[in-house]
Amino acid sequence: MLNNLKNTIKLPSKVSLYALLAISTLGAISPSVNAVSRKDTLVVVSGGSINSLDIHRAGTNRTSYQVAINMYDRLVTFGIKDTGDGSLKYDSETINPELAKSWEISEDGLTYLFHLREDATFWDGSSVSASDVKWSFDRAVSLGGFPTVQMKAGGLISPEQFSTVDEHTFKITMPTASKLTLPDLAVPIPMIINADVAKENATKDDPWATEYLHKTPAGGGAYMLERWNPGQQLVYKRFDQWKSGPLPQMQRVIVREVPSSTTRRALIERGDADVALSLPAKDVKELQNNKDLKVSSSTIDNTLHAVGLNMKFEPFTKLKVRQAIAYAIPYQQIFDVAAYGMGEPMWGRDTKQATTAVWPQPFPYKTDLTKAKTLLAEAGYPNGFSVPISINLGFAQWTEPTALLIQENLKAIGITAPVNKIPGASWRTKALVEKGLELHLKNFGGWLNYPDYYFYWAYIKGHLFNSMNYDNTEIKTLVDNTLNMPIDDQQYVPNVQRMIDIASDQVPMIPLWQPSLDVVMRKDVSGYVNWFHRQLDIRAFTKE
Question: Cβ(460)–Cβ(466) under 8 Å?
Fold first, then answer.
């Protein structure tokens, strides 16, 4: 018997930047697009650099995820809620329709039927069919790497699980019921691709058209690609025939890459930009008092800024070395200087063991250089050692001051830690794919708001965000046993608490703080949503 879920489910120059952007893209803009007015155009300045238009491609960086969100549809999406202070945030407990107008789940949780919108089309005018959904899901579970592991988190592991019932009905068959399956369909990965276009551009050596889709998206999402100049800008234009939600107000969106946070601040203050991303916390606090601007700010669910200790390298294979580093961190200084007090501290828990399953939660470490020196000597390093501390320049506003403060404290216990600055476009490959950075600052946020899901990604050997090369048999067993478990199961909380206890004792990763997501907008701009993926969703933006 099927439970029918029809609608929703609970779970210095004064030259305008806009003018400059219009000139720089003029050659690729049709006359109709050139005619788009300033009030129908959103100008965003971002510190991040997009490196691919295909989220499934190996090495695609986080900033690039926005393409999957804005240019492609998914079957379902999370709801949106008001945080109470006027800011908008995704609702992890609500699932709404997107490409699927309705769905049904069998009582045993093993069969999902999705009914697609009959009027949905891709950008080329062809109808979106269940065959496109199947090909897209087959691709996600077959390519390997990040997309395949993400699909696996929801129990989606094989093309044999996906089938077409008819042109507009798609079926998923599960080997085991899981609390993560439906929400996993709302993350950016299971995007629906125009299968005919992709297959036309596939080759024997590239059957999933990764090279083609890397530079040429083929979707049916709310926005189309107008132009991409790598390292400079991404220009979206609205797909006026989009049917999977309310048609966005903004006809054109220009996302300009501006590495300097000082320049981004100047552009938003002057009105040459409508939205500024990734501003330092200090700037955000100051701009809250600017009557021409407004700030959206709230903590990011299931997310930590942290120090990673790579256990592939000799000093960090020793437990007491890792614990020594944890006691050497100047937590409060970092929180004051790098976070400017915005977010939630993740150090100094009073109890050695976790008393709740809340995640993130503080670890039981605080700054104690004497204890750090003692542990280092007991580990066989009385005179310390030398190790670089690697940072992502794409997030220099917090990584750079944090690294310098850590460097100073490590020097006090005999560890020399020169700062290794890595460009944002190269970070994912070096830190997450190659996993070759010894001591590094990292950030990871679990897309599905469950602690066991965080551990699945960040603490399991071989998984993308385990940049520490950490391997613990007990944690793996706990994650395997808990990932599909309902949260009201009597074993769920004890399992999660045990994971937290192992992680805080073994400390391959040292939490610093839970960050907030802060975005500055002009006063007449609304609609920014704090999403779990932390990337730009341009579909809800409006201007008064």
Answer: yes
How many Cα atoms occupy the beta-carbon half-sphere of 265 within 13 Å?
16
AA identity, residue 430: K
Q: In sequence order, which residues have a C-beta less than 8 Å from that of residue 241 and are 6 or more positions away? A: 121, 125
| pLDDT 10s digits, 131-171 | 999 999 999 999 998 899 899 999 999 999 999 999 999 99
Whether omega for the bond prior to residue 360 falls within 30 degrees of 0, making it cis, is yes
**CB distance 338 to 473 below 8 Å:** no
In DSSP notation, 281-336 reads HHHHHHHTT-TTEEEEEEEPTTEEEEEEE-TTSGGGGSHHHHHHHHHH--HHHHHH
> What is the largest distance, in Å, between two alpha-carbon atoms of the chain?
72
HEC sequence for 454-468: HHHHHCCCCCCCCCC
The per-residue pLDDT for range 392-436, each reduced to its tens digit, is 998 888 999 999 999 999 999 999 999 999 998 789 899 999 999
Provide φ and ψ at 408, rounded to 5°.
-65, -45
d(CA 388, CA 190): 37
**Could you tell me if 120 and 150 are in contact, meaning their C-beta atoms sit under 8 angstroms apart?**
no
Q: How far apart are CA 94 and CA 5, in angstroms?
A: 12
Q: CA distances (Å), 65 to each of 45, 47, 396, in order? A: 16, 15, 20
